[in-house]
Amino acid sequence: MAVTYFSHLYAPTLKEVPAEAQIPSHQLLLRAGYVRKLASGLYSYLPLAVKVLSRIEEIVREELNQRGCQEVLLPILGPSELWEESGRFGQYGPELMKLKDRHERTFVLGPTHEEIMCNLVKGEVNSYKQLPLNLYQISDKFRDELRPRFGLMRGREFIMKDGYSFDADVQGMEESYQQMFLAYRALFETMGLKTLPVAADSGQIGGSTSVEFMALAEEGEAEVLYCDCGFAADVEAATAAVTFEYTPQHTDAYVKVSTPSATSISEVAKTLSVLEKHVVKAVALETEQEGSVVLFVPGDHEVNEIKLTARFGEWHFMSKEELIQAGLIEGFIGPVELSKAVTAYKDVSLCQRTYWICGANEVDAHLLDAKEGRDFEPLATVDVVAAQAGDLCPECHKALIAARGIEVGQVFQLGDKYSKPMEATYLDEEQKSHYFQMGCYGIGISRTLQALVAESHDEAGIIWPLPVAPFAVHIVLLDPKDPDIVTYVEELSQQISEQGYDVLIDDRSSRPGPKFKDAELLGMPVIVSIGARSFKEGVLDLQLRKDLIKEKVELNQAFFTILEKLQSLASSK
User: Fold this and answer.
1) CA distances to 92, 210, 226 from 206, in Å
2) d(CA 435, CA 421)
3) Dihedrals φ, ψ of 237, to 5°?
4) Which one, of 472, 573, 466, lies nearest residue 528 by Cα?
5) What is the CATH number of the domain that holds 518?
6) Are 443 and 475 within one domain?
7) What is the C-alpha to C-alpha distance for residues 152 and 149, in angstroms, rounded to an integer?
8) Is 316 in a helix, a strand, or coil?
């Protein structure tokens, strides 16, 4: 391990918060001299950030390699024909970065490498005897984000580990998937990053099953629902078990009531003196797969647009003209005598609800206690509601808790989603051809760097967990021109370095105040300070960055005390 002098380190710190940074982790990375913005969504990594990234990558490699994964490095630039072969060239959307060479041939700057990896393997792996196979890489990726924001959280260029498993059958794929799930849980724990595995939508990658690893942080973009029993899902994938506790007042027949100008759920609930969750809301769509559709959902919930796309393909909310053409009355749509021009569904969350407060399909009118099976035909179910805090856990039926999260990793069961269209096959024992069963496993390396800051910081600066810290020990040398102090610090640093820990010595001729501020801002786990007065007294000041509580340590015991602190930090990750 190495000893580095601050006077030789390129780490330009800032006193003021840059105007471009909106969240604390982004602000701190800029202020502490870890990154610098080049353009929207494009960042340069300075030496301190590179050290953190290297440690993150080292932890990833060690965990994956011991589980039999093999590292490769694939081209960032890939021919568009591969993407057309998989069917994703036109599906991925405008985020896919494309360019043409001098021969007008189209290439893709890879946001992920399913196609290239599948193409690599299908020409070389021909027999079941070569399976299972798990390959991964760590490289730059590109995505043409519409609104790059929040520093490294959502950029146009980012560093990602992407891995792919190839198995002979579904059982093998599931076993590989489980191994990667366990690997991810272990490697994030090693980094000192607390993550929550949550059920997730497969998105543009595809496949049947997916789990995201979320670092819980207030500044996270994703909303997560979880329960103390261990259930967790992001709102894009969670199924709502809605409570409504409604007692019908009219069980013999529904009652039509006047609700003049009450076209929103809040207005209907106020007019009828009921809660919004007691009202059944109608959502009218034009869909690619089924034409005109009306969805009935709980009044206090919104539809999940990702679930809608997964179920109905392309869709949009009906315009006023489309509502009229379908025979629907905006704001008063209900299941009783509903227009035959539409197909009606109810969300699964309404399966336990027998009596409905709903639109009457008549201007300025709603129905109280319309009964499914008596007043309208039983409806087929779909899962389209966005779950929210307070809904019941599908496993233990306790109320779900909401939190914000940063997605740092995701694992997928792909099956033959890519191997089938790309004709990637192997031969079994009987020489029969089968498609590979694939898994996909990603970690946002650069995003993980910022997630670590988001999860571990205070008003003074960053608090790095020891396994990923650029330096384990930051020594603030208050009198850098005193040869005796310098000699002692150099010897102490060398002793620490020989134990496998990097040391940063702040030998700058700055005043003590700014040096202490920088030490707190940069966030190394152990901070030591020594000057002429303390040296004369035979002591130095030692503090852990996580609490900044100073303690006096005798000079002849400093090495052993620092080593003890580092070992304690390592065991408590």
Assistant:
1) 11, 9, 23
2) 10
3) -115, -20
4) 472
5) 3.40.50.800
6) no
7) 8
8) strand
